[in-house]
């Protein structure tokens, strides 16, 4: 009879690599030559590559950046996170 203990009952399948894109709003405080300072509700993950879209009216007006610092700050009595982003390459 099949399905007994001597038969294989499960198989582990290797899943493909993927990318999850989570859109979140930030308040951009300043933009310098190769640095962006933004305030976010969520902390940044050091080394994480992100895309910052600066203008909703002009799609593609953003830049690629990497999180180099994430510090909690209090803004209007609420804990937020100050993200220092280092721009990567050329603007989009």
What structural keywords apply?
mainly beta, 92 residues
3D shape: extended
Topology pattern, helix = H, strand = E: EEEEE
* Overall strand count: 5
- State the separation between the terminal residues, measured CA to CA: 62 Å
Q: Determine the number of helices (DSSP H or I, runs of at least 4 residues).
A: 0
Question: Spatial order of the strands in the main sheet?
Answer: 1-2-5-4-3
Question: Main sheet, how many strands, which sense, barrel?
Answer: 5 strands, antiparallel
Radius of gyration, CA atoms, in whole angstroms = 21 Å
- Which residue ranges are poorly predicted, with pLDDT under 50 across at least 5 consecutive positions? none
Helix content: under 10%
Mean pLDDT, rounded to whole units? 82
In terms of DSSP E residues, the strand content is: 35-45%
User: Which structural category fits the helices and strands?
Assistant: mainly beta
How would you describe the oligomerization state of the chains in this entry?
single chain
What does this structure look like?
The chain has 92 residues and is an all-beta fold. The chain has a domain at 26-88. Helices cover 0% and strands 43% of the residues. It is built from no helices and five strands. It has strands at residues 26-31, 35-40, 49-52, 63-75, 78-88. It has a five-stranded antiparallel β-sheet with strand order 1-2-5-4-3, with no helix packed on it. The chain is extended, with a radius of gyration of 21 Å. The model has no long low-confidence stretch (mean pLDDT 82).
């Amino acid at each position: 009879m099949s399905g007994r203990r001597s038969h294989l009952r499960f198989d582990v399948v290797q899943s493909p690599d993927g990318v999850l894109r989570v859109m979140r709003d930030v308040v951009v405080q300043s933009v310098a030559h190769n640095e962006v300072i933004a305030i976010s509700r969520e902390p940044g993950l050091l080394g994480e590559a992100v895309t910052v879209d600066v203008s909703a009216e002009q799609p593609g007006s953003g830049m690629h950046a990497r999180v180099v610092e994430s510090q909690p700050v209090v803004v209007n009595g609420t804990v937020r996170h100050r993200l220092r982003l280092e721009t990567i390459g050329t603007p989009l």
